[in-house]
Amino acid sequence: xxxxxxxxxxxxxxxxxxxxxxxxxxxxxxxxxxxxxxxxxxxxxxxxxxxxxxxxxxxxxxxxxxxxxxxxxxxxxxxxxxxxxxxxxxxxxxxxxxxxxxxxxxxxxxxxxxxxxxxxxxxxxxxxxxxxxxxxxxxxxxxxxxxxxxxxxxxxxx
Length: 158
Hints:
four-stranded antiparallel β-sheet; alpha+beta; Immunoglobulin-like
């Protein structure tokens, strides 16, 4: 099985590749940063949005968020209506402040991520675990709302 391919919205905006793959990759990252709501500057810090993935597993809904360098005490999870809201802050350490960087790709400051949650999620039973920079949020689903497999018979044609 092939791996997952990251969706690149810039490829839909400009489907042709005028300058080769190297430049295109930089352009794609620029467009993605521009399109994401997390790319606004505030008080000298760039706002950022953690990357997430979500899936169904063993009767539960799982959301994983990459939060390296974030203290678990600075992470807050809440459910409002049909959305799970993840917010917190990655603080800059003293050794990093005031340095003259050649390249800076790590963002510090507040973040907020809002994700729709599926119907049937039991919000009162949400559990969260933070390990090695990854936050894993798990919530059980009502059995009637779990995805189910449907067998499809394929007919041979002559």
